[in-house]
Description:
Blueprint: E1 22-24, E2 27-30, E3 37-45, E4 57-64, E5 70-72, E6 74-77, H1 81-85, E7 92-95, E8 97-100, E9 102-105, E10 109-111, E11 116-124, E12 129-136, E13 139-146, E14 154-161, E15 168-169, E16 172-181, E17 193-195, E18 197-199, E19 203-204, E20 210-218, E21 221-222
Antiparallel strand pairs: 1-14, 2-14, 2-17, 3-11, 3-16, 4-5, 4-6, 4-14, 5-8, 6-7, 7-10, 8-9, 11-12, 12-13, 15-21, 16-20, 18-20, 19-20
The site of one 2-acetamido-2-deoxy-beta-D-glucopyranose has 4 residues, from loops.
Amino acid sequence: xxxxxxxxxxxxxxxxxxxxxxxxxxxxxxxxxxxxxxxxxxxxxxxxxxxxxxxxxxxxxxxxxxxxxxxxxxxxxxxxxxxxxxxxxxxxxxxxxxxxxxxxxxxxxxxxxxxxxxxxxxxxxxxxxxxxxxxxxxxxxxxxxxxxxxxxxxxxxxxxxxxxxxxxxxxxxxxxxxxxxxxxxxxxxxxxxxxxxxxxxxxxxxxxxxxxxxxxxxxxxxxxx
Length: 225
Ligand SMILES: *[C@@H]1O[C@H](CO)[C@@H](O)[C@H](O)[C@H]1NC(C)=O
Ligand SMILES: *[C@@H]1O[C@H](CO)[C@@H](O)[C@H](O)[C@H]1NC(C)=O
């Protein structure tokens, strides 16, 4: 498969190798922080895949890093789900992934609407890498560790490529999102940027080291790219 090239959040990096079209929709985006992100955890409740499925529609919570990487566990609706991860028609493929020039990835597995994908990123002090895990309904299915520098922000994305840029993406939710900084940054909340999304509110109870938002609601979006 071709990699899911992406906009690193906040800054547009047109990384279109081969795609004729790339488009972005709703987002909930934080950063950059004056500190750096040690750990981030969220649970994406998968919506129905677009119908018909067209290459390629991706949902991802990503972290842009000082190393220029994009840590981005993915849920992707492909035109041919079976060819990509052995999924059935109507299913998604999900896996741990980092975009660092090329798209690195862990095992790709099928996932269905209603599944809860927990995407966990944690800086590992002994290796200097970010360890990613993707779990489906609590069971780890895909992992990846990458040397990526330090994460500066966290944000969700709805990304279309090629024919998927003529489709509608269903509304979906991210639950129990927690972002833990290396040090207190009381200004982090002020960096929030939202497009076609709402949330239950971003809060910190320790002067800006740990940030939580219990529900992020991403609106349905129709591309007209
Ligand atoms: C990540 O979030 C899920 C869902 O809230 C939770 O079950 C899990 O324990 C969390 N994992 C870590 C490592 O924080
Ligand atoms: C850090 O990475 C090493 C090597 O992959 C692993 O054995 C260790 O469990 C990790 N540490 C933590 C705290 O997860």
